[in-house]
Amino acid sequence: MLRLWKNPEFVRHFRSELRRTRATAVALVVVAVCALTVLACWADQESHLLAIQAGSGKAPSAAMMHLLITGTAISSFRALMLMQFGVLGFWSVFACAQAVSRERERGTWDFQRTTRLAPYELLVGKLFGEPVLAYFIVACGFPISVVAGMIGGVSILHILSAFLILLSFAVFVGIAGLWLSSVLEGRGRGIVVIAALGMFGILVGAQGLSTSPFPGLAAFSPVSTSWPLLQYPRLSPNPVIFGAPVPWIVMALLLYGSFGAWIVLMLLRNLKRDFQELRLLLRWEVVGCCAFLNFVLYSLFSPNVEVFRDTADLAEFMLAANGFFFFFLGLTMLDTPERLNATTSFSLRSLFSEHGLQWPWLLASSVTSYLLLIWGLLAWGRALPSSAGLPAAAAIHLLIMTLFITRDVLFIQWCKLTGLRAPLMKGVLFLGLYYASVGVLCAVTEVSSNRFAIGLGNVLTPAAAFDRSGSLLSVTGALGIVVQLMAIVFLVSAIHGRVGRIRLAAAVAA
Amino acid sequence: MIRLTSVRKQFGTLLAVRNLDLTIPKGEIYGLIGPNGAGKTTTIRMMCGLLPPTAGQVPIAGVDVIAEPENAQKHIGYLSDFFAVYDDLKVWEYLDYFAHAYKMPEHEIPARVREVISEIGLEVKTDSLIAGLSRGMKQRLGIGRAIIHKPEVLILDEPASGLDPKARFELRLLLQKVRDQGATILISSHILTELDGFCTSIGIMERGQLLRTGTIAEVTSAESPTRPIALRWLGGDSATVRSVLERFPGTSGIDIDGDTAQFRFMGADAGLAQVLAELLTAKIQIVTFTEIKTTVEDLYMKLSHHEVM
Questions:
Q1: Which of A199, A216, A500, B146 stands the most exposed, by the fewest C-beta atoms within 10 Å?
Q2: Cβ–Cβ contacts within 10 Å for residue A45, how many?
């Protein structure tokens, strides 16, 4: 059923979007735009060459004519490819980001869910069906682009590679858009579109990461990968995997493939589920995803970019990155009040159950991150100056980060049990308010005592995790650990109480 | 055909459906009635596999909708009150899409699409865009979508809401046709007159529980074993009428008003015939002598406490 032409969802979009008259009109418009582009490029090249000719005082030659033709062809090829990147990439993310939310809004989603279409069929149908008009536009422009590129002297391999990157990028942003559409489907379509466009901007802007310590991440941007294929001068040297340079196109395909696979995993599990029943990742997959994200960063690290002075800098960056990973992964583990198993039993089986609380899994993710950190430090220790006592300090710092993130995730889980409307959004807003308040408090107290402000920050925020004073753990840092442990115990008991109340209500009512 | 066993659905502290047990045999037209918030839609969504139950099992045609959702959908046709359709498709394309989505054998699809279009009476609109159809036509198309794969169970959630009387009548005819083809139909509706004379059995739901379930006769007799009878006669001899009626041990609640009377009768039809014969023997000129049929609405008003969660 993966055959596209047999996929009912794809066929539906194809029929409604590409009726004969519309398809003909679109094809004519594409050809007209291509012709205008070529003419514009011709005029530009001609005026450029005429200016050179006037300067040299020579008569027009056959060589200049050849130069005019090849120059027009290569600039037309570039312009057409950039237009196709813009149209297909933007359209793909824009259409896919509305795929589920629009169906839900107009009331057709339930009918699709009650068909026998498997989630992967729906996924494939929507992924290629929603932006089918954009794919048609690219298909119409393809022969003209190929001819222009070949006349311009671009090898057919480069031309096809550029189209491969174009398709991979469109599929990747389409999958990401679908994911957003499914996890935010309870919200208005506008928010989903804004989020999708923000994500599109971030991906295109990832080109800026080519000068970061992780240049490989710039391969997310089609600008990095397509630039050399369009015969532009290289923007940056090839990215590295474990220090070995790889072509941009390979890096892009690796990133799109691996990150896309995680998103597809989440989509396949949840696409046909009710919004309230969404569970993005299984608990053990959370640990796997955490390991994957860490592994990607270590493998793409380039010691040649002199941002990190020593391994302590690298460890500090990874600590911050893991803070984000833990928080995001913690959110993927939020459970419904009916299914949450907030047990008081301390057996391994109940602690690590599929519907158990998030903290044992965050702890497991943290241990995994720590092991990978040690491995990363060993691997990159040869390229960067090592810092003494780093593994012990990193362990303490990672523990502090894990405790704070665990507290925050448990708080949002508790919000989910309270019957708040939009508990996730409100929980995140409350946390934002909390950190902003602590920031203001620290800023105010800093006027009278800098030490007190730092201590306050260490107790109430994970600032102690970034303490580079030299001591393994400051007093306020230790106090922060104790306070957060108490907060976690309090939240766990509050969650337990809530779940108990829900069970009791059910028992009484039954 | 439909068998719900100890089904419970909980949203936080709210128990939307409480240990619901419901069996609907093959060929029944089952009317699920109850006030807003009674748990009807939640029950229906669980039957269609749109919502997993917190506890209990929901096998439809012997297939568990939660364990084998795609397999179970083969047996289920679903239509909700909000009958959205794809306006940018043609009528035949819409049905063709769902026929493929329900994975009907490829070679059967064109004929089945034509057959359903004919059943729903949209032959002249086959090649028209859905956007141009009237609301009633769209609703019929919705029914067509629900039956395109010949489901054994048809589940309809408030299918007539928002339809004008003519469209409602057409919908009723269409559903009768589907029933005649052997489908089991579960229909939830607020418009109780709509279910009268159409449902073979009913369930009255309130606060997530079934207050009564069974055939209309069963529910009626369970509620009250007596039957209400009305009669009218010529002349004003109400004393004779009363004395005749009081002679029978099965009669009760005699209420005489001028030349009309109502009473309740407990017993078989033969006993009732005897009452009529006795009245005629007493020279009462009977004009009408009828049993007042208990409507679904009467039953609902009698049984329901109109409580919502």
A1: A500
A2: 20
